[in-house]
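Minutes, project check-in
Item: structure for the 74-residue chain
Input as provided by the requester:
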Amino acid sequence: TLGDVIGAFKSITADEYIDEVKRNDWPPFSGRVWQRNYYEHVIRNDTALDSIRDYIEANPSLWANDPENPERNR
């Protein structure tokens, strides 16, 4: 299923990231590498696709105010 594929991807990449943190002496992190679930959505037209692209492009700039950003409450 799609859920199995996403779960495997998250597990493999999280394990690899954790290994790289240890191997390269990167700063440790607390919490999780990935959020718990994922959001799937059928893209039905160009307008919806453009809206999703805009969201993806703008999203990193919102990290400073994200409640899950550990730097936000310092």
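Outcome recorded: DSSP finds two helices and no strands in the chain.
No further action items on this chain.
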